[in-house]
Amino acid sequence: MTLSRSELAKHVDHTLLKPEATPADVAALVAEGAMLGVFSVCVSPSMLPIATPTGLAVATVCGFPSGKHHSSVKAAEAALSIEQGADEVDMVIDIAAANEGRFEDVQADVAAVRAAVPAGKILKVIIESAALTDDAIVGACRASEAAGADFVKTSTGFHPAGGASVHAVALMAKTVGGRLGVKASGGIRTAADALAMIEAGATRLGLSGTAAVLDGLDGAVTETQGDGGY
């Protein structure tokens, strides 16, 4: 697969979720994201509201990173984020519920947040694919779709089991069949990684080392110093 630098950039949520991030760090993220031509910047909800130039969307997270929050708390966090200017919310499910096959609980969790994220705003559901069996990945994706999600997403980038994999992305893409977007995040540090995820079916990428990934398209693949939670 080949994409131009600008085409690849438009797949990217340029991300900063480090707990030590400062307002100055977020301002630098926005400036870099605008310069690189990414789709959005993704920041922690406590950093909202933020000013962005026209055409640069704002994404945030809720129930992050463990997913072990009451659904009502996730919904309240999402609602406040929308009120403070977020265009997209990436929520974390209860991973144990998925692995135990309690997909009705997963669906109810997602539905609660969906009710707080109005039409026209995007809800992505982080299933933490590296911590799930294949059956649980499929079930979590189906539950997310039934609850009205717009995307399913691989990972928080904080789980010790790891981040995105080509296998998980392909399975997620097959399960949602183009009806939902698929976001790959976690450990994507090179252009080759990014292109492999897109070829497997990812329609959005969560990156913090975005410049290095884009530079890799010109043959200058650079390892980042860390993925900032992605």
TrEMBL record:
<feature type="active site" description="Proton donor/acceptor">
    <location>
        <position position="183"/>
    </location>
</feature>
<keyword id="KW-0963">Cytoplasm</keyword>
<dbReference type="InterPro" id="IPR002915">
    <property type="entry name" value="DeoC/FbaB/LacD_aldolase"/>
</dbReference>
<dbReference type="Pfam" id="PF01791">
    <property type="entry name" value="DeoC"/>
</dbReference>
<dbReference type="GO" id="GO:0016052">
    <property type="term" value="P:carbohydrate catabolic process"/>
</dbReference>
<feature type="active site" description="Proton donor/acceptor">
    <location>
        <position position="90"/>
    </location>
</feature>
<dbReference type="InterPro" id="IPR011343">
    <property type="entry name" value="DeoC"/>
</dbReference>
<feature type="active site" description="Schiff-base intermediate with acetaldehyde">
    <location>
        <position position="153"/>
    </location>
</feature>
<comment type="function">
    <text>Catalyzes a reversible aldol reaction between acetaldehyde and D-glyceraldehyde 3-phosphate to generate 2-deoxy-D-ribose 5-phosphate.</text>
</comment>
<comment type="similarity">
    <text>Belongs to the DeoC/FbaB aldolase family. DeoC type 1 subfamily.</text>
</comment>
<comment type="pathway">
    <text>Carbohydrate degradation; 2-deoxy-D-ribose 1-phosphate degradation; D-glyceraldehyde 3-phosphate and acetaldehyde from 2-deoxy-alpha-D-ribose 1-phosphate: step 2/2.</text>
</comment>
<dbReference type="GO" id="GO:0009264">
    <property type="term" value="P:deoxyribonucleotide catabolic process"/>
</dbReference>
<keyword id="KW-0456">Lyase</keyword>
<dbReference type="GO" id="GO:0005737">
    <property type="term" value="C:cytoplasm"/>
</dbReference>
<dbReference type="GO" id="GO:0006018">
    <property type="term" value="P:2-deoxyribose 1-phosphate catabolic process"/>
</dbReference>
<dbReference type="InterPro" id="IPR028581">
    <property type="entry name" value="DeoC_typeI"/>
</dbReference>
<dbReference type="InterPro" id="IPR013785">
    <property type="entry name" value="Aldolase_TIM"/>
</dbReference>
<protein>
    <recommendedName>
        <fullName>Deoxyribose-phosphate aldolase</fullName>
        <ecNumber>4.1.2.4</ecNumber>
    </recommendedName>
</protein>
<keyword id="KW-0704">Schiff base</keyword>
<dbReference type="GO" id="GO:0004139">
    <property type="term" value="F:deoxyribose-phosphate aldolase activity"/>
</dbReference>
